[in-house]
Amino acid sequence: AVNGLNLEINKGEIFALLGPNGAGKTTTVRMIMGLLKPTRGKIFVDGIDISKNLSEAKKRIGYVPQFFSLYEDLTVLENLYFFGKIYDLPKNVINERIRELLEVVNLREHKDKLAGNLSGGLKRRLSFAVALLHDPKLLILDEPTAGIDPPLRRAFWKMFKALRNEGKTILVTTHYMDETEHADRIGLISRGQLVAIGTPTEIKRKVFDGDLIRIVFRGGKILTELNAPWLVRLLRRENTANGEQEVVLIVKELASVLPKIPIVLKKLGFEPILIEPVSVTLEDAFIALTSGGEINVGEIIRGYW
Fold first, then answer.
1. What whole-number distance in Å separates Cα of residue 47 and Cα of residue 56?
2. Is residue 79 classed exposed, middle or buried when 0-12, 13-18 and 19+ CB atoms within 10 A define those classes?
3. d(CA 14, CA 73)
């Protein structure tokens, strides 16, 4: 179930709805598809209220479910022709779209094979082709890369980006943190609620309200505070076995701050040895933003200490 979900997906973007199993991703998709009725609120697809004109909204949607749902006793071509008729497309349009899509999803050499005899990856490609037959404006992909090996996942995301560049709007649900880096924007969903939304970079910056920088330096005194307009706060400080100091700073904007840090340290009498950004992963961000508790700084910057 979802609770008070307020979500707007921009035209021509790849939007990834990221969350663990049971978070509400598939429920959200089923409501957009008109398969579940919301208890309250409205859903619009390309400006169409689905509660008032679901059939018209569905013409604008292509849907790839999480599990293969096509006819396994039909060939690839037969499945495509069948669904072309379901979409009420003219025969010449069906033929042209099938010719195009067999190239797009790389299924031409498998067109005469029974769908049931295809590998998992090829079945997923066939599902993509069927979803694209009627040239929808919105493509909804529910866990499209689940159970797929990494090279094929990469190939699918390359295809998603190509479709986006052709003007398609794509909604992807996934629980794979790494692949959502390819999305234009991400929505983090947990226990039915949208907890954060933004670009991958924006989502990661939400953890500390800025970027992290690790600094190793020498100096006689202990650095306990640092006054600078670009500094959010000093997050952590430790002494090393070599008598050096290591600190992690939260700064407003990494690129503009990096050149200024050596200057500030030298003015304070410190000798900088190492200055490097600390990467916050989407997995770090998801755990931090959905845990509801204190952020474990040691976990976020693991490997740097």
1. 11
2. buried
3. 33
Q: Which of 198, 229, 245 is the last residue of a domain?
A: 198
CATH number at 265 reads: 3.30.70.100
Helix, strand or coil for residue 15? strand
**Structural domain range at position 238:** 204-303
Residue whose tokens read 């907890």: 195
175 & 31 share domain = yes
Position 171, amino acid? L
- Alpha helix (H) residue ranges in 105-169: 120-132, 150-165
Half-sphere exposure of 289 (CA within 13 A, CB side): 27
Statement to judge: residues 138 and 93 lie in one domain: yes
Q: Which amino acid is at 24?
A: G
Q: How far is CA 199 from CA 14, 196, 206, 282, in A?
A: 10, 10, 11, 11
DSSP string covering 217-228, please?
EE-SS-------
* pLDDT digits (tens), the chain, 305 positions: 788 889 999 999 999 999 888 889 989 999 999 999 999 999 999 999 999 999 999 999 999 998 899 999 999 999 999 999 999 999 999 999 999 999 999 999 999 999 999 999 999 999 999 999 999 999 999 989 888 888 888 889 999 999 999 999 999 998 888 889 999 999 999 889 999 999 999 998 888 889 999 899 987 677 766 778 888 888 888 888 788 888 888 998 888 888 889 988 888 888 899 999 988 888 888 888 887 655 666 666 655 44
Among candidate residues 124, 54, 130, 63, the one with its CA nearest the CA of residue 94? 130
Q: 88 and 226, same structural domain? A: no
On whether both 62 and 153 belong to a single domain, the answer is: yes
Report the C-alpha gap between 2 and 40 in whole angstroms: 11
